[in-house]
Structure to design on (658 residues):
């Protein structure tokens, strides 16, 4: 607890240019306490990792940030102003874009059609009929993806032919293209191999370099530590504190996560049994 | 080194250019392969097969004379209208089993007010369209609201509407058929112009005078005009095909059918899209019913029986996926054409027409297997 308060004091002193703040958020579902007094402060242009094991409350926190859930207690501030989102659309309009694990992509549809899904560019055909501008969609989707370091083969290839990593990158690039100021990534590396995870981490780095603030949700410290600027640990619905990268080592983070001590316990037990 | 450097530069320059214009990882696909990957390919191949088969077995029977063509093309046109509706709805991930009953009910809604309540024909025609679209809305509302499978919701309406059609018919006319509607349609200029009979008599007479069309003994051409149902089919197919492939709404339909949760997350009004397509399907069924009443001159309780299955089969032959997100209007039209050719054509051959259903069932199975194969190839990129 002393670590926690010291650290947050230091963070306050360093800079208070927060683009997004959750202050003492609680969320209940009936008798279940999903989040209890959680504080999360995202600095402008940083990658903030949110770490926690299953059941730690990560999903509820994401959905609160994205405007799906409304918190029962606490305050949600964007650029210092309190907000009360009634729907995900409102959060999106304020530049809070969430890339969920299902990515909101349709495998049978082309890259261009997916990229512009819900925000199709239109032009007037014969000066009267509003039609989807497929050429523009194809051109822009390829260009924007290339800017983010993703080279698709053809804008007309179905998403189903792309790898999981490419899809994740496409979903992120799409969110950035449509004006995300804050990018919330829900376990973007969970289903990916080593190399593909690396590509996604590179993309997060690119996003940060463009001044976008990122909340990176994961339970994998090895992915979080290299890219993160600060880390918030969540355990059983409560925050275990926020740590700047220079104030904490990877091993310490790993230890603080719910799995850390339990794995150590398991190791001890197994070794003890082996000795006996 | 100094020798290779200029060469390297040239090569780099070349590579940059090629990356700018196209990716080097894109293999050139032959036009044949590209055609093979289109959703409507199966139905186009099927249509070709059917034409070849009937060309062999019924080539000299008059099936491919102009009057023979009109016969099967008209059957295809009726089915084509509802196949377009079923196809678009299926691409959005839902389907409607009440189409067939809706056809019968639409006919009754048009016939009863005009024959027994003293309404003008045009008013009961509008009433039929409004009623059907309201029922389509209800179908859609129940499906999106309850999230029940559309199969079960529309199955209920298949029975409800079929039953109501019978109830209305026996209540008002004391029989399962309401006749005499044809004369009232002929007397109403609007309804007659829109739905009854044929059009383009002048063109056909002109062609007959040129000797391009055979004449009957009385000097009239064998085919007196283009049935209006065909123009409606053309209109619906072009309209729906345009919306589906070229507009924002079309992209929404594919998104909703492909993954409705994804569609919701990118801000597409999923419910509105689905409900409007249920209404469109109901509109198509009503159009079928109204055209048939105007053409046959009566409404009957058994009209449109099993048409829902034929429409769905035509859409599936046309490459539409039962799970949604994939298909084409053009394909569904070819599917309907196959139906027309087989159903009418079989009587021109020496085959017993009892084989019709066997043939169609086989065709459906073949189409599903073929489409499954093509799709898995298209999506895995092999």
């Amino acid at each position: 607890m002393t670590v926690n308060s010291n650290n947050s004091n230091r963070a306050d002193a360093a800079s208070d240019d927060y683009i997004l703040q959750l202050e003492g958020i609680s969320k209940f579902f009936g008798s279940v306490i999903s989040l209890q007094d959680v504080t999360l402060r995202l600095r402008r242009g940083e990658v903030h990792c949110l770490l926690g094991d299953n059941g730690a409350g990560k999903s509820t926190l994401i959905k609160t940030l994205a405007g799906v859930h409304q918190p029962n207690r606490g305050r949600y501030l964007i650029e210092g102003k309190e907000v009360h989102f009634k729907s995900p659309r409102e959060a999106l309009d304020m530049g809070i874009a969430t890339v969920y694990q299902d990515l909101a992509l349709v495998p049978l549809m082309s890259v261009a059609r997916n990229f512009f899904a819900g925000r199709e560019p239109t032009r007037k055909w014969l000066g009267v009929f509003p039609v989807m501008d497929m050429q523009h969609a194809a051109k822009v989707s390829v260009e924007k993806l290339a800017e983010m370091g993703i080279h698709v083969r053809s804008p007309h290839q179905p998403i189903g032919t792309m790898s999981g990593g490419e899809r994740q990158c496409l979903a992120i690039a799409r969110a950035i293209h449509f004006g995300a100021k804050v990018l919330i990534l829900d376990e973007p590396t969970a289903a990916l191999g080593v190399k593909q995870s690396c590509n996604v981490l590179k993309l997060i780095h690119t996003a940060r370099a463009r001044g976008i603030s990122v909340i990176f949700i994961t339970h994998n410290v090895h992915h979080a530590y290299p890219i993160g600027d600060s880390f918030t640990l969540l355990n059983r619905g409560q925050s275990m504190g926020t740590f700047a990268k220079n104030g904490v080592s990877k091993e310490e983070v790993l230890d603080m996560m719910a799995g850390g001590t339990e794995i150590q316990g398991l190791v001890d037990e197994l070794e003890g049994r082996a000795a006996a | 080194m100094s020798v290779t450097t200029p060469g390297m530069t040239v090569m780099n320059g070349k590579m940059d250019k090629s990356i700018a214009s196209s990716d080097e990882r894109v293999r050139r696909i032959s036009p044949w392969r590209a055609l093979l990957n289109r959703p409507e390919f199966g139905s186009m191949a099927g249509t070709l097969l059917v034409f070849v088969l009937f060309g062999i077995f019924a080539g000299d029977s008059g099936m491919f004379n102009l009057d023979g063509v009109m016969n099967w093309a008209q059957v295809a046109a009726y089915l084509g209208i509802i196949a377009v509706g079923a196809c678009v709805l299926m691409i959005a991930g839902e389907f409607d089993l009440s189409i067939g009953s809706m056809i019968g009910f639409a006919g009754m809604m048009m016939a009863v007010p005009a024959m027994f309540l003293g309404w003008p024909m045009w008013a009961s025609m509008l009433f039929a369209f409004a009623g059907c679209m309201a029922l389509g809305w209800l179908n859609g509302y129940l499906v999106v609201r309850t999230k029940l499978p559309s199969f079960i919701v529309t199955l209920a309406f298949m029975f409800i509407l079929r039953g109501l059609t019978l109830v209305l018919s026996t209540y008002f006319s004391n029989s399962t058929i309401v006749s005499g509607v044809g004369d009232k349609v002929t007397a109403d200029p609007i309804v007659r112009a829109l739905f009854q009979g044929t059009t383009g008599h002048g063109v056909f007479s002109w062609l007959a005078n040129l000797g391009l069309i055979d004449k009957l003994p009385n000097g009239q051409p064998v085919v007196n005009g283009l049935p209006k149902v065909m123009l409606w089919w053309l209109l619906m197919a072009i309209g729906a095909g345009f919306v589906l492939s070229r507009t924002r709404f079309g992209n929404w339909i594919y998104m909703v059918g492909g993954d409705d949760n994804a569609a919701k997350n990118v801000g597409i009004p999923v419910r509105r899209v689905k409900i409007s397509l249920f209404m469109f399907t109901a509109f198509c069924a009503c159009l079928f019913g109204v055209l048939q009443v105007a053409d046959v001159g009566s409404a009957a309780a058994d009209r449109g029986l099993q048409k829902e299955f034929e429409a769905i089969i035509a859409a599936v032959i046309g490459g539409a996926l039962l799970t949604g997100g994939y298909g084409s209007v053009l394909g569904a039209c070819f599917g309907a054409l196959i139906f027309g050719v087989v159903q009418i054509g079989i009587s021109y051959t020496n085959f017993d027409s009892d084989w019709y259903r066997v043939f169609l069932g086989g065709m459906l199975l073949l189409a599903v297997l073929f489409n499954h194969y093509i799709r898995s190839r298209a999506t895995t990129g092999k």
Observations:
- The CA atoms of residues 261 and 323 of chain B lie 14 Å apart.
